[in-house]
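Standup, Tuesday
Yesterday: got the pipeline producing structure tokens again.
Today: sanity-check two examples.
Blockers: none.

Example 1:
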Amino acid sequence: MTKFAKAALCVLTLGVAAPAVAEPIDIANITCEGFASLDEQTKGALIMWMDGYTGGINEDSTFDLERLGVNAADADAACSADPTRSLLEVMTEVTSG
């Protein structure tokens, strides 16, 4: 199971409680490397947020756990290849295909 899929599963099993983040996260500027340094609950919440955000961009209002897992695996591979990439760019790329 990829890091992204684990994070998404964490949110689903623990509930979508607000993670304890000391400071707001600027989604436009977080890199894959920055994402990797977050705690699991924050990662899960961020993945869920990004799924909704990219779904809005793609005019797709469905929630599909299987698709989320595939997108998470694709994002994990892209982030592993280049940890300096923007996480938002990676997620937008993998969800638009």
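Example 2:
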Amino acid sequence: MKYGGKADSLLFLVNNGILVPSFFIITKEDYIKFLIDNNIYKRIEELFDNKKYDDIKNLLMKQPITKDLSKKISIELPKLKGKLYAARSSANNEDGK
């Protein structure tokens, strides 16, 4: 699985001719770069290992959107059709099989 479960499912539908709302994907690599650029990668790992999930959320919410991620969003968002958007999160190990 290259992406998280939700993204893989959307791509499967699109590749099989099913109409779905337009979307774009923030990849695992984008996310890791965001953590590294904000110098919180190791801290997130420590918090995860200690099951401090609320602390992870709080730490992430305090971080600025990095220049690279902002650029990607700025490029991709205008390509979407419509005026309403939803953000969905799905890690590679979520939506388990």
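Quick observation on example 2: Residues 5-15 form the longest helix (11 residues). The mean pLDDT is 87.
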